[in-house]
Amino acid sequence: MIFKNNTIYNFIMNRALEFERRDNIHKGWIISKKYADILINNKNNKNIHNILHSIYGKYLCDLHSNHLNTTNRMKYNRAWQTLLNTFKNCKSDSIVRNAISQFHYTCHINI
Fold first, then answer.
1. How far apart are CA 40 and CA 93, in angstroms?
2. Is it the case that residue 10 has pLDDT exceeding 90?
């Protein structure tokens, strides 16, 4: 009887941990989408490079305040790093605008 109760307890705990992990991933994508919406509204702005770095800092603060993972282990953080690398390496405005649109779409489909 002890074995059965222990198995049920482990099952419930594993299920709760998995739900919490999934909920944290979902929160991370919601936060990313919030800042992607700001970027998409400003993608034609001349100061988009400054806006991006400012928004990225706010995004990281938002993740910290929600006790979410800020490492590149999470896909939503890797999407931000890809966007930042595109901004750093590409000087063409059309490529930058397309990268913002693609990032916005990525955040949208992962919610």
1. 14
2. no
Interatomic CA distance for residues 95 and 45, integer angstroms: 14
Task: Kindly list the distances between the CA atom of residue 73 and the CA atoms of 38, 64, 66, 81, in Å, as whole numbers in the listed order.
Answer: 24, 15, 17, 11
Q: Which of 87, 97, 103, 101 lies closest to 50, judged by CA?
A: 87
According to DSSP H, which parts of 1-111 are helical?
Answer: 2-41, 48-65, 75-89, 93-109
* The model's pTM: 0.87
Question: How far apart, in whole angstroms, are the C-alpha atoms of residue 79 and residue 57?
Answer: 15
Q: Where are the domains of the chain?
A: 2-109
